[in-house]
Design a protein that fits this description.
six-stranded antiparallel beta sheet, mainly beta, 503 residues, 3 domains
């Protein structure tokens, strides 16, 4: 498997979550991730036949081997055994990259892994952080070149009291996201058992009590609601058995055509449940009820008289968040982006690019789908737009997609919309606050603009920095407050702000 090679995914790649249960000899559990004890689905005709005939595989389709209890015998030819890095070589994630001939799907390693053991098991140690770091460092070495180095390999080690001491469950897939230890979420996920009672709601939690979402850069999450087998759980407030084992929140993979059904909050998220039978939840996207919510679903329950619940998502609850549409508190518009290449005088800038959604609004969050990327090539002094999802002719001029880009003086580039509309809206503070462009753990108080990391990047030779990180050293700490009367504009990092009074 090499980044950029043609895709060769197995059927497991499309599962929202993959669970691999194993039994470990606790007398010999050192460096367990290097041992050949983890299940790898058999390929080919025999593997397909044995899975097809397995009742357990049908009941637990997200479990490699088809059964959550590794003590039970696995049928011959059903799975092979390997180390964690071998699992990651065989069960791969999908990545869309841009090429001269259009978008191409390649395979990469899943970068978020969770290990869960029973009490007194391998994850029940005095220093789980040390264990997580050892596994991460080991996998980063063996998988070098097969994952995004700006993210790295993230590992969680947790304990499930319902598991025996010698059992270990490994989780990977598009629905597995590992927050850093000590990291705070920037948004939230709330389930209202009775939508009329807004003060009562449940939130998904990881097994160790941390919130399961939403964190910066989080583009998906699997939440267990049934048998309690998963690393993240939520209570749907039902007195009856909900037979669907999990629900899956993720980013829509398909680009919605421009000018089709305008979005409320701009979030391209979908909600689905693991197929089951009986009391199966059915989601339907519904209108938002307040400004804090970005997307919401009504959840009906088949075969029961239970009141329909409601699930809501806020991708960023901070005052400094980017708004797609102005709210009552918005007092500034992002009229353009200004890149002064002299800000990076200690390096030679190769390219600057920003990502925009179908409405030409900045893609500030991982639950948005980028439609185009506007690129400024500094070496050749060229500007172009890459249109994602297009084949044959993905490279276009900025004007053809409603954008404009110009060099207003030497080493200064300005990007705007051809229709004069903003790239988004902000709520500036009444009292001056320090601007923060990079905060890994969300531990600093101030006005956070680290969502710029999702909007674009700057490349310096072989080094690529996300947009927020690129401005962190020079611009972090500068004060920002609402506009004074007669103040025409503010320049904050790459953002050119103008007063907005329509909120």
């Amino acid at each position: 498997m090499t980044l950029g090679n043609p895709v060769r995914f197995s059927d497991e790649s499309d599962r929202p979550v993959i669970m691999i249960p194993v039994k470990l000899d606790l007398r010999d559990n050192q460096a367990f991730w290097r041992r050949n004890v983890f299940g790898i689905p058999k390929r080919g005709l025999l593997g397909w036949l044995f899975n097809k005939g397995s009742k357990a595989a049908r009941e637990y389709p997200w479990v490699v081997g088809g059964n959550p209890d590794p003590g039970k015998r696995t049928r011959l030819f059903q799975v092979a055994r390997g180390s964690v890095d071998e699992v990651l070589y065989n069960i791969t994630d999908k990545l869309v990259i841009g090429t001269a001939n259009g978008s191409e799907v390649v395979e990469v390693a899943f970068q978020h892994l969770t290990f869960v053991s029973g009490p007194s098991g391998v994850c029940d140690t005095a220093s789980d952080m040390g264990l997580e770091e050892r596994i991460s460092e080991s996998l980063a070495s063996t998988l070098k070149g097969y994952f995004d180095p700006t993210i790295g390999v993230r590992v969680d080690c947790m304990v499930n009291p319902s598991l025996p001491a010698n059992q270990l469950n490994m989780y990977l897939g598009q629905g597995v996201f590992v927050p850093r230890r000590g990291e705070r979420p920037i948004g939230w996920i709330r389930y209202y058992p009775d939508p009329a009672r807004r003060e009562e709601y449940n939130q998904p939690q990881l097994l160790d009590g941390r919130p399961a979402g939403l964190y910066k850069g989080q583009g998906g999450l699997v939440i267990g609601i049934g048998e309690g087998l998963l690393h993240a759980q939520i209570d749907l407030g039902s007195d009856e058995d909900v037979q669907s084992p999990f629900m899956f929140i993720n980013k829509e993979a398909v680009l919605t055509p421009v000018n089709e059904e305008p979005r409320g909050g701009g979030v391209d998220a979908s909600l689905s449940f693991c197929r089951s039978h009986g009391n199966e939840p059915v989601p339907t996207q519904v209108a938002r009820t307040d400004e804090a919510c970005d997307v919401a679903w009504k959840i009906d329950f088949v075969g029961t008289a239970q009141i329909p619940g409601r699930l809501e998502i806020c991708v960023d609850s901070r005052k400094s968040r980017l708004h797609w549409k102005p709210t009552t508190g918005c007092n500034a518009a992002i009229s353009s982006l200004l890149f002064d290449l002299r800000d990076f005088s200690h390096r030679d800038v190769d390219r600057v690019w920003i990502d925009l959604d179908r409405d030409n609004i900045l893609t500030a969050y991982a639950l948005q789908v980028a439609r185009v990327s506007l690129v400024w090539d500094c070496e050749n002094e060229e500007q172009y737009v890459y249109e994602w999802g297009q084949t044959g002719a993905p490279f276009k001029t900025p004007g053809s997609v409603g954008l404009k880009c110009r060099m207003i003086e030497n080493n200064m580039i300005e990007v705007g919309r051809a229709d004069g509309e903003p790239f988004g809206y902000l709520e500036l503070p009444e009292i001056p606050e320090k601007v923060i462009f990079s905060d890994t753990f969300q531990s600093f108080s101030g006005y956070h603009l680290d969502w710029l990391d999702q909007c674009g990047r700057i490349s310096f030779g072989d080094t690529v920095l996300s947009l927020g990180e690129a401005y962190a050293e020079k611009c972090s700490g500068m004060p920002i407050a609402r506009f004074e009367p007669g103040e025409p504009r503010k320049v904050v990092g790459p953002l050119v702000l103008t007063p907005y009074e329509g909120g």
